[in-house]
Amino acid sequence: MSLKAIAKQLGISVTTVSRALNGYDDVSQETRARVEAEAQRRGYRPTLSPAV
Fold it and tell me: What region holds the HTH lacI-type domain (predicted)?
């Protein structure tokens, strides 16, 4: 499951999905709830490798 798939399903950008899942304040509560619900429904698990 990828951020891209969640974004496509919800009709929002990959950036918005990422920001919602990472708790950024500039994402509305409604959008965050939709993203979290879709991520949970699809069994999304974040990649744990460090960013380079």
Answer: 1-52
